[in-house]
Automatic annotation (TrEMBL):
It is an enzyme of class 2 (transferase). It comes from Lautropia dentalis. PANTHER family: OROTATE PHOSPHORIBOSYLTRANSFERASE 1-RELATED. Keywords: Glycosyltransferase, Magnesium, Pyrimidine biosynthesis, Transferase. Belongs to the purine/pyrimidine phosphoribosyltransferase family. PyrE subfamily. Pfam families: Pribosyltran. InterPro entries: OPRT, Or_phspho_trans_dom, PRTase-like, PRTase_dom. This is Orotate phosphoribosyltransferase. Residues 68-98 are annotated as: Disordered. Catalyzes the transfer of a ribosyl phosphate group from 5-phosphoribose 1-diphosphate to orotate, leading to the formation of orotidine monophosphate (OMP). GO terms for biological process: 'de novo' pyrimidine nucleobase biosynthetic process; 'de novo' UMP biosynthetic process; pyrimidine ribonucleoside biosynthetic process. One of its GO terms (molecular function) is magnesium ion binding. The keyword Coiled coil does not apply. Its EC number is 2.4.2.10.
Length: 290
């Protein structure tokens, strides 16, 4: 687990945005854990969350640049994984669905040109992430949609920077993948390229509902169908590793002398939830060491 994932999980538990118990998901499954991004509802909380997203973006773009330098040597010096690179540059590159394998291997490595946050939660996430990126020296435009088109004033259902070049979709979670599908359509309709997705938590869950479980996870479906990567701040693997680590290496005690861990859960509780999550994962999840 990266330190970013560890710190994000700790933060989500401490703020109560990541909780254990019994929750019904959109797919109708009874989940022993739930992530509610709506609970980052003050400036400090949203700012810290946005900082994690910004760090993940910089990490991904840095990784793209490193990958490019090992593949293409000096070419990578001209990549777009830096502040100030523009959609115009991206438009000239040869990778993406239209490029051949040979072209892709030689093409400059490219970061993202615009952040797109699907309404509603994606709006605050993409906006706050753009602010956090700028504070870290990476000024990147952002845009979002309205769920209903505005028929007066400036009209339309897109707000913010023009969608062009390589667009990153910013959201909290992917459940069935509907929000990403709609975002891809909006981005393509604007003539831009959906180039990646950033989410907070990858539940590593297969599609379907409570009774029927699909072969692929919604995240894998996004990867396969749109040929773009999904970048999470943390995954279910990370959460399970975190719980194991904290249960096994507890050092803090609460007022009654009981061992405590992040989020105010006792270690005994965390051990119980860990096992419930592992059971849930065996039923609905993908891969995994649980
Ligand atoms: O992968 P999916 O099945 O689309 O589920 C995930 C989406 O669901 C939630 O948004 P919702 O549509 O509930 O709207 P909100 O952002 O207005 O809460 C969430 O914020 C994601 O955008
Ligand atoms: O599957 C869902 O509906 C879901 C899970 C989760 O952890 N968080 C969320 O907002 N939705």
């Amino acid at each position: 687990m990266t330190s970013l994932s560890h710190d994000f999980i700790r933060f989500a538990l401490d703020t109560g945005a990541l909780r254990f118990g019994e929750f019904r998901t959109k797919a109708g499954r009874l989940s022993p854990y739930f992530f509610n991004a709506g609970l980052f509802h003050d400036g400090a909380g949203l700012g810290r969350l946005a900082g994690f997203y910004a760090d993940r973006l910089l990490e991904v773009e840095g990784g793209l640049a490193a990958e490019g330098s090992s593949q293409t040597g000096a070419q990578a010096d001209n990549t777009t994984a830096r502040a100030g690179d523009t959609a115009a540059q991206a438009g000239n590159a040869a990778t993406g669905t239209g490029g051949t394998k040979a072209q892709a291997a030689l093409a400059p490595v490219r970061g993202f040109d615009v952040l797109f946050g699907p309404a509603y939660k994606g709006i605050t996430l993409a906006s706050a992430m753009a602010v956090a990126c700028a504070q870290k020296g990476r000024n990147i435009p952002f845009a979002f949609n309205r769920k209903e088109a505005k028929d007066h004033g400036e009209g339309g259902n897109l707000v913010g920077a023009p969608l062009k070049g390589r667009v990153a979709i910013i959201d909290d979670v992917i459940s069935a993948g509907t929000s990403v599908r709609e975002s891809v359509e909006i981005i393509r309709a604007a003539g831009a390229e959906p180039a990646g997705v950033f989410i907070a938590l990858d539940r590593m869950e297969r599609g379907g509902n409570a009774e029927q479980v699909a072969a692929l996870s919604a995240v894998d479906e996004v990867r396969q169908r749109y040929e773009m990567e999904v970048h999470a701040l943390a995954t279910l693997d990370d959460l399970l590793a975190y719980l194991t680590q904290h249960v096994e290496h507890s050092s803090t005690r609460n007022a009654s002398g009981e061992a405590t861990s992040a989020g105010g859960y006792s270690d005994a509780m965390l051990a119980t939830y860990r096992s419930a999550i592992a059971d849930y994962r065996r039923r609905y999840g993908t891969g995994g060491r649980a």
